[in-house]
């Protein structure tokens, strides 16, 4: 019989520093997970104490309450293994607790390409498929092979294929019927061929200015795109370490072609992108900005002055403050455009 793995469980633990919005929160119980092998004991502890499990990672997509009556599990499972699949591809197996941006840098250092557009996205690898994180024309769904999970109800480990994860725009099976599964690792397929994607105007402008000769000659590589993404993100988005925030706070809403054309007629500056389905994805940041919320505060929170899509903590805010601003922005956008906004973060 395998000996139990010792858990360092803390009681009434302050996890305010473990969410990038810096909202005050005390967890009834807290433990840091270092290995998937600890999960049976973690689940057993929660059952004996009669509290639910709440697994968190980098805390970059969370809105937390003042007190969380649960066993909060910080997913700290590490590990990166490169498996050469063919001369053109390699599969990277990654522990769920690995920092995402560090993983992007690691891939480039190892001449593996495909996620450079996702640089500087906060959070851990395990959260990437949950949100199907994406930026500048690329998403995790472009590279995901599989997700390793643990079911706390049955005690079974299961590897889900990318298809089984049902990745969509900022959505996946992990937000629905599989929300109770604990992600322990992910596998992504990367290319050994440097063929970067930089069709977004902001990236093109940066690349042309910084690397004029290489840009003109069509010789831009993934490393330059990586640098461009970092520079553009830093110019538009506040650093959570300086001004607490959870990144993009609202999803870009999708509307029908008819609704898009009606809105465009009323608001000529409306920003929208045609989808393969024929619908249009609207830029939530533009909607919020045009509704007068960019740089506007409500109590201790505000929509950022440079990027209206980002909700920031001006200092001393709590969950109720965040909820009040979320609600008001949604109400105003619904009244103005007839469009419903949906918040991206996970509410514990």
Automatic annotation (TrEMBL):
This protein's UniProt keywords: Cell cycle, Cell division, Cell shape, Cell wall biogenesis/degradation, Cytoplasm, FAD, Flavoprotein, NADP, Oxidoreductase, Peptidoglycan synthesis
One Gene Ontology CC term in the entry: cytosol
Pathway: Cell wall biogenesis; peptidoglycan biosynthesis
Catalytic activity: UDP-N-acetyl-alpha-D-muramate + NADP(+) = UDP-N-acetyl-3-O-(1-carboxyvinyl)-alpha-D-glucosamine + NADPH + H(+)
GO biological process, one term: cell division
An annotated Gene Ontology molecular function: FAD binding
HAMAP family: MurB
Alphabetized NCBIfam families for the sequence: murB, PRK00046.1, PRK13903.1
Known function: Cell wall formation.
Protein name: UDP-N-acetylenolpyruvoylglucosamine reductase
Originating species: Sinobacterium caligoides
